[in-house]
Amino acid sequence: MSDELRNTTARVVKRALDFFRVIAFIALLAWPIFAIAASIGHASNSDTWGVDISVFSSIKIDLENTMGSVASPSGVRDPKIDGKAMLNIDTSSLSAFYVFVVLTEIGGIVGLYILLQLRTVFAALANGDNFAKGNAELIRRVGIVATTWALIGPILQFLGGRMILQEYALGISGIELAPAFELSGLAIFTSVSMLVLAGVLREATDIHETQQLTI
Question: How far is CA 90 from the centre of its chain?
Fold first, then answer.
């Protein structure tokens, strides 16, 4: 890839990151305002108030005990089914809604931080500074934050899901909901790869600087 094409590609990526940066800032500022507005709506109309929240849940279904509607399930060896899914729950619980708001805001802040670091990296590449000394450190920060979030995020998601589901009574025989915990191997691999990439880029930058001094 020629230098001009590489710089042009970097400029395109930087502009895209600029766009998403603005959207992310707006979303992070608007989300608490929405939460406050929702709280006011709950105070003034608590009987009919409700809002959709997402909960990563473990779902267990016993077909033989689901309200007696399935007497003898056919086509399956085991009438018990279980799995994990992101459920959208229309809750009237204000505390459950607050937990969802906080978890979403934390995830958004982490994502915005990573976006800002990457934007700085691509800004340097767009200017033709392929061996900017700070790029390796920025990518290392992204790797650290991404790895930390890949490990801590599922824990917060599980604890938040437990708090939310405690406020939610399904009341259907044979169906059980519980908070789910799941680590993303792809997320961990990608974030650790960023740390490796940062080390390689740091060595390449040192070699480049040494060559420049020699010349």
Answer: 21
DSSP code of 176?
Answer: E
Pairwise CA distance, residues 29 & 41, whole Å: 19
Residue at token pair 């929240």:
53
Q: pLDDT at residue 67 above 60? A: no
Query: What ranges do the domains of the chain cover?
Result: 3-214
Q: Which long-range contacts (CB under 8 A, 24 or more apart) does 38-41 make?
A: 38/97, 39/94
Please give the pLDDT value at position 69: 52
How far, in Å, CA of 130 to CA of 84, rounded?
43
- Identify the sign of the CA torsion 100, 103, 108, 109: positive
Helix (H) or strand (E) holding 23, with range, is helix 3-44
Checking if the pLDDT of 33 tops 80, the result is yes
Sheet holding 175-179, edge to edge: 80-91, 51-62, 175-179
Res 2 pLDDT > 70: no
What's the alpha-carbon Rg for the chain, to the nearest Å?
A: 24
Confidence band for 5, pLDDT divided at 50, 70 and 90: confident
Which pLDDT belongs to residue 63?
Answer: 74
Give the count of beta carbons closer than 10 Å to the beta carbon of residue 6: 14
Phi and psi of 183, rounded to 5°?
Answer: -85, 140
